[in-house]
Amino acid sequence: MELMVRRIFTIVEERHIEAGRPADPPLRKVAAVSVLENPYAGRYVDDLSELIEASRDLGRQMAMRALAAMAPYNVESYGKGGIVGSAGEQEHANALLTTTFANPFRDAIGKADAWISSMTKVAAPGTLIDIPMNCKDEVYVRSHYDGMSLVLPDAPLPDEIAIVFCLANRGRLNARVGGMSFADAQKKQAP
Asked: What local confidence, expressed as pLDDT, does residue 112 receive?
């Protein structure tokens, strides 16, 4: 199966100050979005394995865009999600967001073994979605529990799926609730 990409978005948010305190480095969040034609819109298909396999190339393409937008920063956290247009099912987005899709991101980032938070839903064009994010190395790094809120203008149409992958270069600004630090997670990952 070949996925038909109708539109792409790359959204970059950068925060330099919060609560009057300058950030060093600033917090950069990137969302790579692909709006696809839903090959299963309007019909039930029992076996979604073709969609899962087709997501591998989509993951590669989106990873390249997301990492280019993250430069010059390294990635410390990530998350993924999808919005399915009203002629589809929530499961269509989930099929596109499995490990098959995510592994090209992990490979491009390097040492990204932690579980990836996700959110999917069926919704009308322009609906808000909150993509949860966590540390790429260790899910228990509390400072990196964050997210990115997105509204996609005119997407997804009823026969579309919007797939989103988010990256961040650090944890929340002014994070101070304790727990494992990012540096601790890096030590844990070392060979």
From this structure: 93
Largest CA distance in the chain: 53
For 132, the domain range is 5-189
Residue 185 pLDDT: 86
Give the number of domains in the chain.
1
Reply yes or no on whether the pLDDT at 191 is more than 80.
no
Question: What is the rounded distance in angstroms from the CA atom of residue 109 to the CA atom of residue 26?
Answer: 19
Residue 75 DSSP class: P
Residue 165 CB coordination number (10 Å)? 28
The residue type at 19: A
Specify the CATH number for the domain of residue 44: 3.30.1330.110
User: Shortest CA distance to 9 belongs to which of 60, 66, 57?
Assistant: 66
pTM: 0.95
| Mean pLDDT (the chain, rounded) | 96
Dihedral angle, C-alpha 8, 83, 37, 56, nearest 10 °: 70
With beta carbons less than 8 A apart as the criterion, state whether 69 and 10 touch.
yes
